[in-house]
Structure formats: structure tokens, C-alpha cells
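FAQ: What does the model actually see?

It sees only this:
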Amino acid sequence: MSRDARWKTLLELLVERGRLDVEEAAAELEVSAATIRRDLDQLAEQQMLVRTRGGAVVHGVSYELPLRYKTARRASEKQRIAKAVADLVAPGEAVGLTGGTTTTEVARALAVRPDLASGSPALTVVTNALNIANELAVRPQFKIVVTGGVARPSSYELVGPLADGVLGQITVDVAVLGVVAFDATHGAAAHDEAEAAINRLLCERAERVIVAADSSKLGQRAFARICAAEAVDTLVTDAGADEETVGRFQDVGLEVLVV
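And it is asked to produce this:
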């Protein structure tokens, strides 16, 4: 296993468990404990985890993996969610896409829809995510609007007053939110307050709001609130969502699509 592959696996395990033990990680990755210690030390130097005696822990509530390390997590669920979200978008609409792995999959699902292969434009896509803009810019039938702002290297999202200025001048038919947490009581949330502020403004500029979130995000809380659950029209999630959690969202007025 290459170093990059080890690091990706270690970071994914750390996010899932919150804590890693050197000996257990060495056994799972089938490498020596010395190799794992060296990997954890190097990741700690990059401020991607906190070293402890015998292992590592995440940074806490503000902990966030760079996007490139999250793409493989729950990939099949995200692709099913993305297709269902893309099917809710009508040709010719203006669509706002926030950053994140699930919204990136939504962009890809929109790009391959046969009925969006032509048009003037087939879709207008407004995004603050550089990776999404980059993937869709090669589609001449899509009008791509990028917000501007300061790039966050962990998520490729543009944030700050420059992004605020663009979003304050437009409206969209639908905003698709990628979130790190979504709870019927506490609403949708992100790790970073600047990211949450941009997402909140995009919601305010939208006729309808869709949250695209796999079931691991539901019933969870995070540091920076984006909006109340009642501000969301539709939640699209996967079949791992339990009935009680789905019911809570329905009770506050959301349409919930389980795919």
C-alpha cells in the first residue's frame, strides 16, 4: 500500500471512529506499527489530526477532512442521492450548488442527463465550489456562474464578502445544499462559519431548497448553523435513514425522499 493510500485510509478511519490506536491501525492496514507512527506524525505536522500517546484523535467539533480524502466515503449512497436530486431539477432552471462530495456528485448527475445535453442554456449553475465549476465549465450548454471569494483549501469553496456580493445580486430556482449535519431541531450545519454563511445566503436567494445528505449526517449537529430545518423544502437521503429520524423531518414540513 502506498503512503497516499495509507494516509487516505487512516483519515477515513479517524473520521468514522474519532480515535485511532497505532497497533490496531497497523493490523488493519497490514503494515508495521513504526510505519503507522511515522504516518500519524506526518499527518499531525499538517494539522490533519492530533497525536496522542499510542495513536491519534480528531481535532474536535471543527475537524474537517480535505475534500480529496472524503470522496470515497459512502460513495454509492451519494451517487444514488445525487441522481435523485438531479431528477428534481427542470431544464432551464437556475441551480445553486454548494461545495461538498455529495453536491459534486449532483453536478456530475446533471451533466449526464440526456435532456440537458442542449439548450440556451440547458441550466444555469451558480456555485461557490471551484471543483464543481471546473467539472461543468466544459459543458457549453450550461451557464456557469462562480461567486468569487477566498478559496478554502480543504473544500475548494469560495467564501467571504466577495462571494456575498455576487449572491446578493441573483436569484435561483433551487439551491442544493451539502451539509455535514442535519437535524430536525437544530437545522442544517457546516464545520466552518464562513462556509455556513455563504450557504445560508444561497438558501435565502432560492425559490426552493434541497438538502442532499447521506444518512450518517442526519440527527447530527455541527459548529456553524446554515438554516433551520423549516427553511428546507426537500431532504434526499439514503435507505440507511431510520423511520423515526425521517418522521421528525416530515413533522416539521419537509418532503423526504429515501433512495
